[in-house]
Design a protein that fits this description.
heterodimer; A: alpha/beta; 5-stranded parallel beta sheet; two-stranded parallel sheet; 14 helices; 7 strands; 50% helix; 9% strand; B: alpha+beta; two-stranded antiparallel ribbon; 19% helix
């Protein structure tokens, strides 16, 4: 590996770069080519990969998040791109850092925020962002209440997010066509400027429901064209939701009895037909209500001591009392 | 006469990379960054003008650097310093402060000797740059 490997964005050793490997650089003759002449025209991708520990995050993503196949595939693509970009940099090939602003679209509860958090980690491991923190904001945090209030507010948030990822949830609220004096437009303009000029400093992820994001992008072509990656989060299938429910139950240190599992399998399709179905979030709420009913059931049996097992188990009746089964 | 105030003032001017490294260090310590400017170089002038609000909750020096750059652009011929404020109970004070911009020409100070009662002399210094001129028209 060359010694400029760490995360040298500026090749300080450019003066000493008269190495034979420099013929691989078509554009800038004085580009900081690798000073180490032994590996000047060769780079080992798998060593870079092991070095970045990005595989651990990707594997975690695979095991901890259920479903979301297209999203995971896209994230792997992005990771590969950044890794190759890093290898190119080591050989002195400068192509300008790729634009990594993203848009996450999908129905409620499909894991947009969770993936954004992981994305920040991945980008940090690959050395694309320096700190790897996620700043999650909505319209309220960016748009002010009176003239002259918006710009400082937006800039403040942008400064906080620098070195990491800015996640704008429900981004379409930024643009309100029905009110032409709305300050949202001002926030968008500042955002665009920073997205374009300070690409090295932060990555912006906008998220929201598919249809409303589409209209949002149509009315803000500048924003749409600056976002290179549009990731669509699919809805979960019933089996995936069941698996998610099992994970959640496990995470809360509960378990489902066989009758509980059967009730859950019946519950999920019923819930999916309800108007405001929010995928994993609905499942979480259902489980929270089941916990409530379990507590009630145990409380009704006062006068005897409860075993650890009883305290942990969610029975079928806890779920079947839901209004879905009414 | 080159003004020496704050940390690093006897070193050559810090480059932007060095300033960034110092700010990153301050942020690692959990200090808040503030940018201030003045055109009154008197050493007893503690109250410089603030450039925007102090920046709490920054994670990366890039945010502070944009403010330094903006301040330099707006006030190229003034002194600009970066302060790092420690809010820990017991400190509650500036822990690090260094100059990041200065006017091209620094004329220095006049030493006034004021003869008072008997043979006593009161000494005072006054910047040639201020020279009875109001704020904003000094350098």
């Amino acid at each position: 590996m060359t010694h400029a490997a760490a995360n040298g964005l500026t090749g300080a050793d450019g003066a000493a770069a008269g190495s034979p490997g420099a013929d691989a650089v078509p554009v800038a003759p004085a580009a900081p080519a690798a000073a180490d002449s032994v590996s000047a025209d060769r780079v080992n991708l798998s060593a870079l990969l092991a070095d970045s520990h990005v595989n651990e995050v990707l594997d975690e993503l695979d095991t901890e998040l259920i479903g979301l196949k297209p999203v995971k595939a896209r994230i792997r693509d992005i990771a590969a791109l950044l890794l190759v970009e890093r290898a190119r940099k080591q050989l002195g090939l400068v192509g300008g850092s790729p634009s990594l602003h993203m848009s996450f679209t999908g129905n409620p509860g499909t894991g947009k925020t969770t993936v954004a958090l992981r994305m920040a980690q991945i980008l940090h491991r690959l050395g694309y962002v320096r700190k790897g923190h996620l700043v999650a904001v909505t319209r309220d945090d960016l748009v002010g209440q009176y003239i002259g209030h918006t710009a400082p507010k937006t800039k403040e948030i942008l400064k906080k997010a620098m070195g990491g990822v800015l996640f704008i949830d429900e981004a379409y609220y930024l643009y309100r066509p029905e009110n032409e004096r709305d300050y949202g437009q001002e926030a968008i303009e500042i955002l665009l400027q920073v997205m374009e000029n300070q690409r090295d400093d932060l990555v912006v992820i906008v998220a929201g429901y598919k249809d409303r994001m589409d209209t949002f992008f149509r009315s803000n072509p500048g924003l749409s064209s600056r976002i290179a990656h549009h990731l669509d989060f699919p809805d979960y299938a019933p089996e995936e939701l069941e698996e998610i429910a099992q994970r959640m139950v496990h995470g809360m240190q509960y378990r489902l009895s066989p009758s509980g599992v059967a009730a859950l399998q019946e519950y999920i399709p019923l819930r999916m037909q309800q108007p405001h179905f929010a995928n994993a979030r609905s499942i979480r709420n259902a489980l929270d209500r089941a916990r409530l009913r379990q507590a009630n059931r145990l409380f009704a049996q006062q006068g005897r001591s409860l075993t650890r097992d009883e305290l942990m188990t969610l029975e079928g009746e806890d779920l079947r009392l839901s209004r879905m089964f009414a | 006469m080159r003004i020496t105030q704050g940390t690093f003032s006897f070193l050559p001017e810090l480059t932007d990379t060095e300033i960034r490294a110092q700010v990153d260090y301050a942020l690692e310590q959990g200090w808040a960054i503030g940018v201030e400017y003045t055109d009154d170089p008197h050493p007893r002038n503690f109250y410089w003008d603030m450039w925007g609000n102090p920046m709490f909750d920054l994670r990366d020096a890039a945010g502070a650097m944009t403010e330094v750059t903006a301040c330099r652009k707006a006030h190229p011929q003034t002194y600009i310093r970066v302060n790092a404020f420690d809010s820990t109970r017991g400190f509650e004070t500036t822990r690090l402060s260094f100059i990041v911009n200065r006017p091209t020409n620094e004329p220095g100070f006049l030493l006034r000797r004021n003869e008072v009662g008997g043979r006593a002399i009161q000494y005072t210094i006054e910047s040639y740059a201020t020279n009875n001129k109001p704020e904003g028209s000094r350098y």
